[in-house]
Specification:
Bound molecules: adenosine-5'-diphosphate, magnesium ion
Number of helices: 10
Largest sheet: 6 strands, mixed
Number of strands: 12
CATH superfamily of the largest domain: P-loop containing nucleotide triphosphate hydrolases
Order of helices and strands: HEEEHEEHHHEHEHEEHEEHEH
CATH architecture of the largest domain: 3-Layer(aba) Sandwich
Structural class: alpha/beta
Radius of gyration: 24 Å
Strand order of the largest sheet: 5-6-7-3-8-9
Strand content: 25-35%
Amino acid sequence: MKIPAAPSPPTPPEEAAGSAGPPAERLPEPVLEVTGLTKRYGDVEALGGFTLSVAPGEIVGLVGHNGAGKTTFVEIVSGLVRADGGTVRVVGHDPHSARHMVGVAPQHLALYPSFTVREHLKLFGGLSGLRRGALHEAVDEVAADLRLTEFLDRPAGFLSGGQQRRAQAGTALIHRPALLLLDEPTAGADPETRQALLDTVRRRAEAGAAVVYTTHYLAELTELGATLAVAKRGRVVARGTAADLLTGLPGEVRLTFEDGTEDRRSTADPTGALVEMLAGAGRPVASVDVHKPDLDDLYRSLAVLDDD
Ligand SMILES: Nc1ncnc2c1ncn2[C@@H]1O[C@H](COP(=O)(O)OP(=O)(O)O)[C@@H](O)[C@H]1O
Ligand SMILES: [Mg+2]
């Protein structure tokens, strides 16, 4: 699809009459467009019509219980696994011919223990066509972004778990791909690793990359300003901003009294409930807990979509 260089002048009403109507506002062409993906492993349906598109500069937080199909989706888009059905387009190309435009940090670490961080970054950068000066610059830049500079010459096998996560992310970022697929990049990560990854991912998105970011931590997605895609049984069952999806979900207010008893209330209006509960307490309160809706609450609210 071509995007016109300048908007065409508005059509006078008499000319528009009988046509398809005024031109729709054009959204940017998606970097990733996945439609109706299916994948089966024996009796297991890993994907059952998985549809998702990601615009340039957009960060999609792909969430869902274990076994929902997130990793299978990542593996198919990165060209590692073949789908049974459906389509994948990365900037209009199939996954195999688009692989230089994609950067993947797999859920299960795939580093060579005896290779240094620098060797990993040079290997992945070189495979994507970076040479000499450009490659060296990219290595230094990615290492600085991910706070790996002082570990560049250390073999991956001698890095901490968090440093290995950052090195793995580095192999995904080194060639500045248009599409970044980060599959639980902060699993088991320390706070420094988490912050380095979040900062780097946010900057890449600001520079125009499309990002799919899988995590079990809602706070990371809020910090990234991500939109959410909720995967369940091999399909995306909800899509929107965190505010869209979480507003109106019940949180929980809990009062603990000095005599050890509790009063809990599930409510979409925690402040109102708290005021009411305190007013009616009638005995000394030891502590107050207000639990805001989180991903588990979101999954529960989507349980009505279960077909069994
Ligand atoms: N290589 C495989 N062989 C057999 N089953 C698989 C394979 N990969 C994934 N699965 C199954 O497919 C389903 C989806 O898995 P996965 O994509 O890893 O989910 P998630 O990443 O959301 O936890 C699970 O039931 C999983 O056991
Ligand atoms: Mg997974």
